[in-house]
Design a protein that fits this description.
alpha+beta; 12 helices
Length: 473
Amino acid sequence: MTTMTDTSNAARFREFKMPDVGEGLTEAEILKWYVQPGDTVTDGQVVCEVETAKAAVELPIPFDGVVHELRFPEGTTVDVGQVIIAVDVAPGSGDATPAPAAEPAPVAQPEPEPEAPKGRQPVLVGYGVSESSTKRRARKGTAAAASAAATAIQSEMNGHAAVVPESRPLAKPPVRKLAKDLGIDLATVVPTGEGGIITREDVHAAAKPVPAQAPAPVAAEAAPAPEAAVSAPAVVTTVGARETRIPVKGVRKAIAQAMVGSAFTAPHVTEFVTVDVTRTMKLVAELKEDKDMAGVRVNPLLIIAKALLVAIKRNPEVNAAWDEANQEIVQKHYVNLGIAAATPRGLIVPNIKDAHEQTLPQLAASLGELVSTAREGKTSPAAMAGGTVTITNVGVFGVDTGTPILNPGESAILAVGAIKLQPWVHKGKVKPRQVTTLALSFDHRLVDGELGSKVLADVAAILEQPKRLITWA
């Protein structure tokens, strides 16, 4: 009878696990809970907002019930597949005691070798999927590992080297790689993760120089109990009045990794041209009054985007990607036009799918929707995948131009500078004209100087004489 009661009670509770909201992502940070224990939820209701390496995403729950437990607080980074919320799907039918978190029995499910399983790492914009570790099962020696961690901490407090008495310290493959890159011996690292697992934070802490006069109790404070290590969110730390430390994660972390990878993988070349865009500015003013453009935002970026699309049509070889694994140039017969957008979470690059097929009014509507969605923080991972060429408008910040870094996996990026009234020789006389500077960066492995120059020159020519949008289209 007891067994039947337990089974019935356990069936009352359903657990919602952190889903893979983007292809190959392994973790996400819980930004905000929209529900609390005791709240009633319905199928499809958004219960929380999470941030992945690509974007902020709202998660709907797939069943009805009453929230029983939130497993993680806001600010916590959670692995894909971990339970984040438990829901009572049959409230009022007995004791509300949820089943324990679903973990395999230690003896029945022994853990394989730490580095044997392979999975997927977060997909950066434009990159493919690389290998990583899958989620670690509960380890048979968890209690022993925790005891070993405590012994190591006590050893440090007594002035001895903290050596975990295990033949192989517990750590996920990405953490092992980080330790190797930093030159840290994992055997000397004090683990703070659940079950005695070494975390990224542990490795970074071991890499920091220890002050000569640091008191011994600091070592104990650096290793909280396993529960604290799981639930404590990353926070902004202020050091005195002269320094603030902000954790790098989510979208901002992905941006940093992508830019470093791009800068040191693709050989960048940047070319510049200064152009008189007075006629383009007149066209923008006329289009704003055109009834066919009613309801859409018309600005210089619209004409610049159309000019780049026409230039790509005239020089299709520029719309390509480099396949390192197969040593091939992949020619794209479509243009997914990326637009760099500044958001509170960092710079993201959503793209307009098949922009080459859109009319000017359609392109204007797509640009408006893309920018507004990005500013609201609602850009989906799919909207940022598959870009081929990008535009970044630094002119909105009053900057003349710059040398933009390629979006990973793309061949070219166009930077647009501020449009300013400047003296310009026009029809043999110096006159005030609207002038801007364009900069085109391209991957020199697949775009040579001639091709890059032709694309940039075509964009400039269209902006100088916008009627070429018709004659060259």
